[in-house]
Amino acid sequence: MSYEAWILIVGSLAGICCGITGCFLILRRLAMLADAISHTVLLGMVLAFLISQSLNGFYMLIGAAAIGVLTAVFVQLLHSSGIQEDASIGVVFTFLFAVGVILLSLYADHVHLDVDHALMGEITFVPWDLVKWGFLPELPKAFLMLTTVLIINLLIIILFYKELKITSFDPQMAAAIGVPVLLIHYILMGMVSMTTVASFDSVGAILVVAMLIAPGASAYLLTDKLNIMLIMSALLGVAAAIIGYYLASWLDVSISGSMATVNGVIFAIFFFFAPHKGVLSKRWSQRKLKLT
C-alpha cells in the first residue's frame, strides 16, 4: 500500500475512534475531561514503560486506560467533596501530567517517548513505524493499535448501548432503575484513554482533543438520535482527516494541525447553518414567528 494511503487510513481510523467516543463526552458535558485525560495518559505510558521495559503498544494501552480511569476517579472524588468540577479537572490533570513529565525526564529520557512527540504527534512517520503481530505481515503500529481500539470501542458500545445512552441523557433515572452509573462512567473513561493513546502517532495528545470533541459536537447539531449521531460523527471524523491531509499537502503545513483545523471549520459551518440547531436557522425561525 502506498505511503499516502497509509496516512489517510490511519487518520480516518483516528477520526472514527475519536468521533464515536466523543459523542458520549458531548452528551455528558465532559469535553474538558477529555482534555485532562489526553494529558494524564502520558503518566500511564511512562509507568507502563518503567514496569515492562518495553514500548509495546499493548502495555501502553493498559497503562493509559488505567491512568485515564484514575483521572476520572480523582476528579469525581474532588467534585463529590464540594470542589467545582472544572477546578477538580484542572488540579488532577496538571498534577498527574507533571508527575509523568518528571518520571519521563528522570528514568526514560533515553527512549523515544519524548513529550513533544506524545503531545503533538507526527502522522508522516506512521507508514515507516512497522511491527509484526502474529501471522499478520508487517503493518504500521498506529494502524494496528487504532484498529484494535476501534474494535474494543465498538464492542463496548454494542454491549452497553442502552446503559451508555440512559446514563448520558438521564443519570438520575439510570441510578433509580439500578444501572451502575459510576461503572459505566469509568468504562467510558477507559475508552477515552485507549483512544487517546492510540491516536498519539497521528495527531498527538493535544490535537486529539479536537478529534474527540468536534465531530461529536457537529453531529449533535444535526440530529437528536444517538445512533445517527454516532454514525455522523464517524463520517465527519473521516472527512476531516482526508480533507486535512490534502489541505496540508497543498499548503505544506502540519498534517495533524490541518486535520484539527478542518474539524473546527466543519463545526463552525454546522454551528451557523445546521437545519434546526444552527444560529441562522434559529434566528430565521424566530423571525417567522414574529411575522405570524
TrEMBL record:
Cellular component terms (Gene Ontology): ATP-binding cassette (ABC) transporter complex
Pfam families: ABC-3
Chief location: membrane
CDD domains on file: TM_ABC_iron-siderophores_like
TM ranges: 6-27, 32-51, 57-75, 87-108, 142-161, 173-197, 203-222, 229-248, 254-274
Membrane-topology descriptor: Multi-pass membrane protein
GO biological process: response to zinc ion; transmembrane transport
Family: Belongs to the ABC-3 integral membrane protein family.
Protein name: Manganese transport system membrane protein MntD
Species whose genome carries this gene: Robertmurraya siralis
